[in-house]
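Hi all, posting the design record for the shared folder.

TITLE: backbone redesign
STEP: 1 of 1
STRUCTURE INPUT:
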């Protein structure tokens, strides 16, 4: 069992309710893993976000990871806010993850400007969500967040068919955690940087991504930049470059 490799998928908002959503949001990742694994003993764990509060979400993720045996190689792959969530999970299991991989993501210690830029990209739906308790994507918000206002109707329709409402309680829990760390960083001599929990990691940062562009990650993080926006997770070419770069760091 020690030779088994686990890839653990941490989705962002709107695609984490059950495992069927992963086939859409992580389709390029899953296709790459299928071609790479060859004779390797590989298992993919899709972390479904269970509960509404941040505490419950973290506890639910940890329960799903209990199936991983000691000594296994465990590589988390995170998209969007999944990178922040993964880092919070890793704080409770610091011995578990090897070389995290991120796509258009961020982490605890991101600056306030990045946090508020993310909220601004969906600000109308965010305000409605504060009243209704659910963050629901509409066409304008999806176009702004994923394609910075430049996408075709067909792709928008497909994404919206695979996007579920996201409970605001968990979103606000993540936001509070990130804002509190950003405020503490203002007064720290040694700043906490995103993904400082890990000795090494690789992150794909699109040039026009509201969530990750301009973020200063921890020194051990290899940052790969690419054109485009937050919808980069649907580009197999960019995902292949990311994965090939990342696995080269890992001693399988």
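Okay, here is what came back for every position:
SEQUENCE:
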């Amino acid at each position: 069992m020690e030779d088994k490799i686990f890839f653990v998928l941490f989705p962002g908002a709107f695609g984490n309710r059950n495992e069927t959503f992963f086939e859409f949001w992580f389709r390029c990742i899953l296709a790459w893993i299928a071609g790479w694994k060859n004779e390797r003993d590989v298992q993919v764990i899709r972390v479904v976000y269970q509960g509404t509060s941040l505490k419950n979400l973290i506890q639910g993720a940890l329960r799903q990871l209990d199936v991983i045996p000691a000594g296994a190689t465990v590589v988390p792959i995170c998209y969007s806010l999944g990178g922040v969530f993964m880092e919070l999970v890793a704080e409770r299991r610091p011995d578990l993850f090897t070389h995290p991989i991120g796509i258009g993501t961020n982490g605890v210690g991101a600056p306030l400007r990045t946090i508020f830029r993310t909220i601004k990209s969906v600000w109308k739906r965010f305000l409605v969500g504060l009243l209704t308790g659910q963050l629901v994507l509409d066409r304008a918000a999806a176009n702004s967040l994923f394609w910075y206002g430049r996408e075709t109707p067909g792709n928008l329709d497909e994404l919206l068919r695979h996007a579920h409402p996201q409970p605001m309680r968990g979103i606000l829990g993540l936001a509070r955690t990130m804002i509190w760390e950003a405020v503490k960083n203002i007064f720290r001599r040694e700043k906490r940087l995103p993904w400082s929990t890990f000795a090494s990691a690789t992150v794909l940062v699109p040039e026009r991504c509201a969530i990750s562009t301009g973020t200063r990650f921890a020194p051990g993080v290899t940052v790969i930049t690419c054109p485009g926006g937050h919808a980069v997770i649907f580009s197999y070419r960019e995902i292949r470059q990311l994965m090939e770069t990342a696995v080269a760091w890992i001693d399988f």
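COMMENT: The chain has a mean pLDDT of 94.
Let me know if anyone wants the other runs.
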